[in-house]
């Protein structure tokens, strides 16, 4: 997974890719609950699954933009690099999880996360 993230994010070192994975998967672990959390953990490599499941889910999930801002605050980084990290890690997560699970995850999360996964925002039918 680290090599995929390193490639997607064009990170100069494996360590930099690992930092991004830990930050973003930790944040995602605070957002997901239920079957989607369990199913995603089962798809990921062991260490990535541990990072995801070590987090206690937040009672109030964040919108996509608030998610990025929260990660930036926690890491002390600027918003643009944090958004880049998020997209790079989510691209790898989507490759492991597959489109069906990502769709289920996006249905659970507030608006704005679809764009972080490189998808159009899902909207309920009128």
Task: Give an overview of the whole structure.
This protein has helices at about 1-10, 15-30, 35-45, 45-55, 65-75, 80-95, 100-110, 115. The protein is mostly helical and about 130 residues long. The relative contact order is 0.17.
Briefly summarize what is shown.
With 126 residues, the protein is mainly α. It has eight helices and no strands.
Which percent band covers the strand fraction?
under 5%
* Computed CA radius of gyration, to the nearest angstrom: 13 Å
Please, how many helices? 8
- Structural class, please? mainly alpha
Sequence stretches where pLDDT stays below 50 over 5 or more residues: none
Count of strand segments:
0
Q: Estimate percent helicity.
A: 55-70%
Let me know the average pLDDT: 94
C-alpha end-to-end distance: 39 Å
Largest sheet: none
Tertiary shape: globular
Give helix and strand order, one letter per element, not per position. HHHHHHHH
Topology, element by element:
Layout lengths: L1 H8 L4 H16 L4 H10 L2 H8 L10 H12 L3 H19 L1 H10 L4 H4 L10
Keyword list:
126 residues; 8 helices; mainly alpha
